[in-house]
Amino acid sequence: MAQTLNCDLAILGGGLSGSLIALAFARLRPEISLLLVEQGPVLGGNHLWSFFDSDITPASRWLIDPLITHRWPQGHEVRFPTYRRTLATAYNSIASAQLDTHARQALGNRVILDAEAVQVMPDRVTLADGREIAARAVIDARGGGDLSALDCGWQKFVGQALRLTSPHGLDRPVIMDATVDQIDGYRFVYLLPFDDHTIFVEDTYYSNDPALDVPALTDRIAAYASARGWNVQQITHQESGVLPVVHGGDFDRFWPKTDSVARAGVRAALFQPMTGYSLPDAVEAALWLADQPLDNLGHATRARAAAHWRSGSYYRLLGKMLFRAARPDQRWRIFDRFYRLSPNLIARFYSGRSTWADRIRILCGRPPVPIRSAMRALLSPSV
Ligand SMILES: Cc1cc2nc3c(=O)[nH]c(=O)nc-3n(C[C@H](O)[C@H](O)[C@H](O)COP(=O)(O)OP(=O)(O)OC[C@H]3O[C@@H](n4cnc5c(N)ncnc54)[C@H](O)[C@@H]3O)c2cc1C
Known about the structure:
It is a single chain. The chain has twelve helices and 17 strands. It is α/β, with parallel strands linked by helices and 383 residues long. The strands form three sheets. Strands 1, 2, 8, 9, 10, 11 and 17 form a seven-stranded mixed beta sheet that branches. The N and C termini lie far apart (50 Å). Residues 12-18, 37-40, 45, 47, 49-51, 116-117, 141-143, 239, 241, 243, 265-267, 276-279 line the site of flavin-adenine dinucleotide.
């Protein structure tokens, strides 16, 4: 007979959001028995997640600090064809291997790996190997899922950590080097100096097309490194991603009211619509969840996600301008203009906390896209 596992809380998906929820419960509600169910052989997959200090409140840092693998207190830089700018906000990166190590140490036998959830109900889960989990509450944190109800552009990238034969000379991250040839939309290179001989180089595109030509991008990374005079001894890590930049859509279709399974992470559309980044929302949601009663979690998480969706309408409107109004080879001008604004406004933008004054400031002045295309994009339905 198939085995039944009993717990108070079953968290499906041991990625960023599911792991953070499990860690938050383990610390704040140790009396709750939980299981974290991941289909892969490790927690977190193969990712590097980065964030600014301004993305996470000091009170929430305890959850994320043990995961940080690189930190640059000296701030970060952006580069555009006619200027460079250094911003003082510190930057941090988390390697998924560290999430795996830390979460497995903290959670022990509460982690179930190589276990695919095939049937999910608000209080019951069936795994592919036939095991059942009976729980007071289930949280579905299985990542993106079906995005067909959302209108998306794409932020796509390939990143490689390069071990060089001599020092690269950078002492802080360059989060956008947009001095490169503009191909397939807005293109920039993202640089993280891990140590004086190792640099993470990511070739990134804001594109209308989600197709990712990995060999072409790795060739461009090699060309970029060579143009900088960097001699590559070894590629120590590679990752790729295609993140939705959501500029419209129907939340009720994405998460129907009749679906009463609680959700978290990208599964609940908890990300900054313009960047596709979910880490700040994942931290906040984990701490919020650990403060909720387990009954009726489906309703509570949907109400919170719907409010988050509504609060993202301004960013979706900007996304619409970017993908529908700006000519792909001119998209860089929007970022070029944005990065001339105040550092605090930029920090609030990335954390999804833009004030009304910020919103007006971002849009006012001579628009970096043709005004008629901007109006057409703004007036078309589905923000
Ligand atoms: C390469 C890459 C880099 C990124 N970098 C950043 C960044 O720097 N900063 C940032 O904020 N965001 C970043 N993002 C975007 C976003 O934050 C991540 O995608 C983040 O991992 C999403 O978290 P999540 O928990 O919702 O989903 P995921 O982390 O994708 O986790 C979902 C988990 O569910 C598991 N799963 C799926 N189906 C099942 C099933 N049936 N049964 C059991 N388990 C299942 C998956 O294996 C996976 O481990 C990045 C994305 C990618 C792809």
